[in-house]
Every structure is written in C-alpha cells, then in structure tokens.
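User: Predict the complex with NAP.
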Amino acid sequence: MAVKILRGEEIAEKKAENLHGIIERSGLEPSLKLIQIGDNEAASIYARAKIRRGKKIGIAVDLEKYDDISMKDLLKRIDDLAKDPQINGIMIENPLPKGFDYYEIVRNIPYYKDVDALSPYNQGLIALNREFLVPATPRAVIDIMDYYGYHENTVTIVNRSPVVGRPLSMMLLNRNYTVSVCHSKTKDIGSMTRSSKIVVVAVGRPGFLNREMVTPGSVVIDVGINYVNDKVVGDANFEDLSEYVEAITPVPGGVGPITATNILENVVKAAEFQKNNL
Ligand code: NAP
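Assistant: Here is the predicted structure with NAP placed in the model:
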C-alpha cells in the first residue's frame, strides 16, 4: 500500500477560513502583540508568518521589537498591554537572548491573553482536562490526527519539553489516546515506538527516527526542525521511512504550517472570552 503523506497546508488553510468566518460573523476585531527581543532569525520568520496569516484572516498582528530591554521595563510593558482592552493576545517570541527566562516572563501575562498558552495557568487547565488556550505545536499534532482520522490510538511521544511533549501527552489523554512519553534517559526507545500506532518525534536530531524504530503500520508525526546544508529537515529519515510506514508528515509541510494559524486561533478565542467576560 502506498504511504500516506500527511500534509499540513490544507489543514492550516481550512482553519484559517473557519477563523475568518468567525470574525466576520461575530464582528470581533482581534489583535495580537508580538514582542521580540534581539534579532534571532527563526524568531523573525515565525513572527512574519503570524503577521502574514493574520492579515489573511482579519487579525491585526503587530510586532514590537527591542534590541535589548531590562526585565523591569519588559514587565512594565507587559503590564500595560495586559490592561489595554485593544490588545487581545500577547506573545513573547522565542528564542530569547541569554539572560531572559521565558517562563518567568509569561507568568506575568494574564491567562486569557497568553496565546502561546505556556503560562502555568493554561498548562494547568490542560492537565485538569479543562482546556482553554492550548499551545500551537501540540494542537497542530492533534489537528493532523483529527484530519486524517487517527482517533483514540496508542501514541509514543519522543520529547518531554513544556512546548511539545508535556502538554501534548495531557491533551492526548484528554482525547482518550493511550500515551507513552520518552526522553533522553529512556532505555530502548525503539521498543516503545514500535509498540504504538502513532509516533510523535521532536528531538531536534536529523535522522533520529529510523526503520528499526517503527513498523509498516506506524504513523509518524515529525515535529523536529533541523537545518542541514541550508535545508530544513525533520527528525525522521523521511526518504527511508516514506517507503516503509503507513503514513508520515513531511518536513517542511507537515506540522509547521499549522502552528502559526493555531496561535491566531488562540487570539480569536481570547478575543471572544474577553468580549464576554471582562
Ligand atoms: P527541547 O526542549 O530541547 O526538547 C528536546 C526533547 O528531546 C527533550 O525531551 C529531550 O530529552 C529529547 N531528546 C534529546 N535527545 C534525545 C535522544 N537522543 N533520545 C531521546 N530523546 C532525546 O526542544 P523542543 O523545544 O521541545 O523542540 C524539539 C524539536 O521540535 C526541535 O527540533 C524544535 O525545532 C522542534 N519544534 C518544532 C515546532 C514546530 O512548529 N514544528 C515547534 C516547537 C519545536 P530530555 O528531556 O531528557 O533532555
């Protein structure tokens, strides 16, 4: 049977159309403030993607850039934005320059404006199965599973970070998947990945997931982003696995295209919440 390539662009397009419809029907005027400190290229690319997609959907996305800023001034700025009724979402672009603790900073964003959804309150709601705003990357993984019809399956995630593996494991439990989580200290990861229908890999090592770690019935969702000779590749050996497994996401073109739209989905949810509750 031919391998299924699980592409993300179409999912992102459909989600964007749906958001555009919600904005038109509701009369909301959602707005997102991005704060970038320093000049990291990956952070700039991700910020530009949100501005571009925001324009298409009808969300005002504004990038506020600092070469440098003291923690005191940054927290004061966040406090002003938190109180500003014109601003529905606040997002701190990653990676930050050395000396800034992302998780300390996001604690100061009210949970209903925390569209990255990585503050303790939003992560806590996920753990309690009371999801409100959810992080973009785990949401994109679930969007792919939903769209291609892999429901309530067994999943092994190779990643335990707060951005990917931790929230994803909880979000999958909330949806009746059966979940295993592996990391760098896990012994014999292959025995775990081979025994699950779905493998989510987000390690940050090109070629990490190979034929020995999967079966012909595996569905591989590759979250990894690596730069090899100026080319973007994932963590799975795509050339090899795409001739072996049941289904696999490409990199680029799988999880990545959905994530920027998922931030904007959070902005719309945040704007609806603020309209009805503040
Ligand atoms: P991270 O915080 O460095 O986490 C990496 C995870 O991989 C950790 O849990 C680590 O284990 C595990 N790991 C590392 N080496 C391993 C090994 N040899 N065997 C098993 N596990 C290993 O990175 P992250 O922020 O979660 O991102 C992970 C990857 O996803 C990166 O390539 C990143 O660029 C990509 N990413 C993509 C998107 C997207 O939108 N597509 C979004 C976010 C991240 P320990 O916990 O034991 O260290």
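The chain has a mean pLDDT of 97.
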